[in-house]
Write a sequence for this structure.
């Protein structure tokens, strides 16, 4: 058995073991009534009468994550290009990015609600965390082209913008996609944090209201959906990253 | 895949650090330029500050201008001065919540690291167990903390114990997976040496593999520090009646916006400090062992 196959088999077996343990805890009531059997959560998820509630929440969260992610990717790449073209602005942008990353999203909420409203806040929280990751990964990618290539372009008299387009940007693509795989889970997390501050719909709203109303199956179902979303986005980003690395690295 | 999701974060952190250290335009000054009159020295220092912090300066200026342009009163949106005034006049309001939040974050961080390292050592001894556990740990990792907190609250109640459990779960995964990968990184020749000398399992773990894992373990600490703080703040916001998260919520509910914004500012400073401490700790320890 090849080591890759073995890893996959172990992994699948591990997840099955995890599910079985969770099921046993649920059916025996080992951790009390708030740990439901996994089969009940699955039944809740597949029950058509719940699809409207879950679907609305999922659609809200996914659209916030997608819009915020898009803004974040564009802004992150934009700022990285600005820093590359205008080196005078770079030190300030680097420090600002580090600061934005260190600020806990919850601390920005009062300010964001005022500026962007309760519905816009989740999008902006996603956009901020994605901007940071993409800015850093793109910037370090733009710096990563080999010295000889850059020297060649300088010697041949290429302008900065030309060198950027022909050398630095292609060299930056693998790093950029590395950043994307990291941004994937951050997107769902950011959207649900934003939703805690008075959004009307979304998985984040569902987590809190299900907890407060003691609707345990609903709480677990929403959590399962959030995990599946994160894994799907992460998987997609990972596939894209592999393809780009094969082509450009 | 499990390793990559933790180490990718580290790659971005590393890249951020390298960017912060890239030479700015100020690095070109010559010794002769330094011997000018004091006015020019002050000017150069100011220029260096502007170059490094212009986005923050721009925001501090834009903040009151934006409030004024929109005609917001102080009751809706406090300006920088209102926030600073509340901080200076009522430091007692903030002190206790800061201590609580720091206590939960640091305590949970250390406990989670300990659990992760111990589990990592146990799992490392068996490829089967580590193969089984790592993917499951990845799934735990992807559970958004916003979903984890309500579930843990339903399981363990709305008290402070739940906050600690949550931080431990958040922190345990990077420590666990990086311990396993760090312990596995020992070179074959070192393993052979220990085998030839006939050392037992304990000697191999504590003299060879665990020391080799120290850089990875410190990396886990650095990755976890900001995650832990955010988790504590979120949990305090939703559950317990103590800490900065709670202060944020109660101030918001009472429409005390200066206090809410000041609490947010204090939380930011606390987070930045923890971030810095974890980074310094990593650098010091790694410098010592490598």
């Amino acid at each position: 058995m090849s080591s890759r196959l073995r890893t996959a088999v172990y992994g699948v077996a591990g997840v099955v073991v995890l599910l079985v343990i969770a099921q046993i805890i649920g059916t025996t009531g080992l951790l009390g009534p708030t740990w439901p059997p996994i089969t009940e959560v699955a039944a809740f998820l597949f029950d058509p009468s719940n699809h409207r509630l879950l679907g609305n929440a999922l659609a809200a969260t996914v659209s916030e994550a997608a819009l915020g992610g898009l803004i974040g990717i564009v802004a992150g790449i934009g700022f990285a290009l600005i820093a590359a073209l205008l080196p005078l602005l770079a030190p300030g942008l680097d420090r600002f990015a580090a600061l934005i990353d260190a600020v806990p999203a919850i601390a920005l909420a009062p300010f964001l609600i005022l500026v962007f409203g309760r519905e816009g806040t989740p999008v902006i929280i996603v956009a901020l965390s994605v901007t940071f990751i993409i800015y850093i990964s793109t910037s370090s990618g733009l710096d990563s082209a080999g010295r000889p290539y850059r020297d060649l372009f300088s010697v041949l008299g290429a302008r900065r913008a030309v060198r950027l387009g022909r050398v630095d940007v292609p060299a930056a693509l693998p790093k950029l996609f590395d950043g994307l795989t990291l941004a994937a889970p951050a997107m769902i997390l950011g959207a649900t944090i934003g939703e805690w501050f008075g959004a009307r719909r979304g998985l984040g709203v569902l987590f809190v209201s299900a907890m407060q109303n003691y609707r345990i199956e609903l709480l677990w179902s929403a959590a399962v959906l959030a995990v599946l979303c994160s894994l799907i986005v992460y998987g997609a980003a990972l596939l894209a990253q592999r393809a780009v690395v094969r082509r450009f690295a | 895949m499990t390793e990559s999701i933790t180490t990718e974060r580290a790659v971005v952190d590393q890249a951020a650090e390298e960017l912060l250290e890239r030479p700015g335009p100020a690095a070109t000054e010559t010794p002769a330029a330094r011997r000018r009159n004091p006015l020019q020295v002050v000017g150069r220092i100011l220029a260096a500050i502007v170059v490094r912090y212009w986005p923050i300066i721009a925001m501090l200026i834009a903040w009151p201008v934006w409030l004024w342009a929109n005609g917001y009163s102080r009751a809706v949106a406090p300006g920088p001065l209102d926030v600073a005034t509340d901080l200076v006049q009522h430091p007692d309001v903030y002190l206790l919540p800061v201590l609580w939040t720091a206590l939960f974050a640091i305590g949970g961080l250390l406990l989670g690291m300990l659990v992760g390292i111990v589990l990592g050592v146990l799992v490392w001894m068996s490829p089967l167990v580590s193969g089984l556990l790592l993917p499951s740990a990845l799934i735990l990792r992807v559970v958004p903390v916003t979903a984890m907190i309500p579930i843990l609250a339903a399981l363990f109640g709305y008290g402070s114990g739940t906050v600690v459990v949550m931080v431990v779960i958040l922190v345990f995964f990077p420590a666990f997976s990086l311990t396993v990968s760090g312990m596995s990184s020992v070179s074959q020749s070192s393993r052979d040496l220990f085998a030839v000398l006939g050392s037992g399992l304990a000697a191999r773990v504590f003299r060879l593999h665990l020391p080799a894992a120290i850089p990875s373990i410190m990396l886990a600490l650095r990755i976890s520090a900001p995650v832990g703080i955010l988790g504590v703040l979120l949990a305090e916001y939703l559950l317990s009646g103590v800490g900065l998260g709670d202060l944020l919520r109660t101030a918001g509910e009472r429409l005390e916006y200066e206090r809410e914004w000041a609490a947010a500012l204090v939380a930011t400073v606390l987070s930045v400090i923890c971030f810095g401490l974890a980074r310094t700790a990593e650098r010091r320890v790694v410098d010592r062992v490598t």
